[in-house]
Amino acid sequence: MNYRKKFRVEPGAKVRLAKIDPDAPGKHASRQAAIAAAAQHIERIARLQYLLYADASQSLLVVLQGLDAAGKDGLIRHLFTGVNPQGVSVVSFKKPTERESAHDFLWRIHRRAPAKGEIVIYNRSHYEDVLVVRVHGLVPRAVWSKRYDLINDFEKTLSENGTRILKFYLHISAEEQLARFKARLDDPTRQWKISEADYAEREYWPQYVEAYEEALERTSTKHAPWFVIPSNHKWFRNLAVSQIVADTMDDMGLTLPRPRIDLAAIRSKYHAAKREQRDKGGKAES
Q1: What is the spatial distance between Cα 141 and Cα 148, in angstroms, rounded to a whole number?
Q2: Could you list the residue range(s) of the whole structural domain that residue 145 is in?
Q3: What's the pLDDT tens digit per position in 29-78?
Q4: What is d(CA 79, CA 279) in angstroms, rounded to the nearest whole number?
Q5: What are phi and psi of 188, to 5 degrees?
Q6: What is the C-alpha to C-alpha distance for residues 119 and 156, in angstroms, rounded to an integer?
Q7: Cα(139)–Cα(142) distance, rounded to whole angstroms?
Q8: Is the distance from CB of 31 to CB of 91 less than 8 angstroms?
Q9: How many CA atoms lie within 13 A of 27 on its CB side?
Q10: Which runs of consecutive H residues, i.e. helices, occur in the chain?
């Protein structure tokens, strides 16, 4: 199955989340087969990340969005288990600080964009400025409605400078969200994640759906596509996203760079050092 094609939001397409089944592929899919396939894709990501880091001519930005308990943290843990931490970072954009608020809304986002050779994951992102800000009326419509075009321009700038962009909306049902909240309540190791805001935000579910639909419609572009990933089943979510990321990195044409030094000269110095070491050892024995 080509999940890049299946779940991609085509530019200009209408999005109705109510018509997308968050339970896909459904109860008849093979969970074990999906887990095994995802493991293979995760190995590919680790191998390709090594090439990305070594080549240092391109970068990858992964944007994760979803309602509370959609599974962003869990996806990150599964997807990037085998990568070199030196070349990967995760950024979570929370309420802007006083300094951040003194700049345009994209200032803090651009500062954390990936450098060449890096993978950066945005666990929540610049899209909060057309989601939370819109739903709670933190700025007037006249302000947030202009941000879609600004976001598109920003992402185009990144793309034209060698950054591949993948954006994932993790699609869960209201029932699944409530079940995950209950699981947190029952698990002492995850109770720290519970907040009153989680339940309070459920009152705004229709408004968030509307906000997400417009964001997906207006900012899914050829160079920065959105993917709506059915995420009620965590194992399927991991499979779909890992395949999309691995296939995209395959398409980047990543290769090991050519040596920047004279290997013959280095080998000559190595052998000279070995001879010197051997001669010193012989003198010590005599």
Answers
A1: 12
A2: 3-285
A3: 789 999 999 999 999 999 999 999 999 999 999 999 999 999 999 999 99
A4: 51
A5: -55, -30
A6: 17
A7: 8
A8: no
A9: 0
A10: 3-7, 31-55, 72-79, 98-101, 107-111, 132-135, 141-144, 147-160, 174-186, 196-201, 205-219, 234-251, 263-285
Closest CA to 214 of 17, 7, 45, 3: 17
Mean pLDDT of the region 188-202:
88
The CATH number of residue 90's host domain is 3.40.50.300
Q: Which residues contact 123 (CB under 8 A, 6 or more apart)?
A: 64, 72, 73, 76, 90, 91, 92
pTM of the predicted model over 0.90: yes
List the one residue out of 243, 251, 244 whose CA is nearest residue 38: 243
Task: State both tokens at 81.
Answer: 């288990």
Token pair 């993948």 is at which residue?
A: 166
- In the chain, how many domains are there? 1
| φ/ψ of residue 189, rounded to 5 | -75, -10
Measured CA to CA, the distance from residue 139 to residue 39 in angstroms comes to: 43
Q: Tokens in use for 24?
A: 């896909």
Residue 52 has a pLDDT of 98
Q: CA separation (Å) from 117 to 50, 245, 249, 250?
A: 9, 15, 12, 15
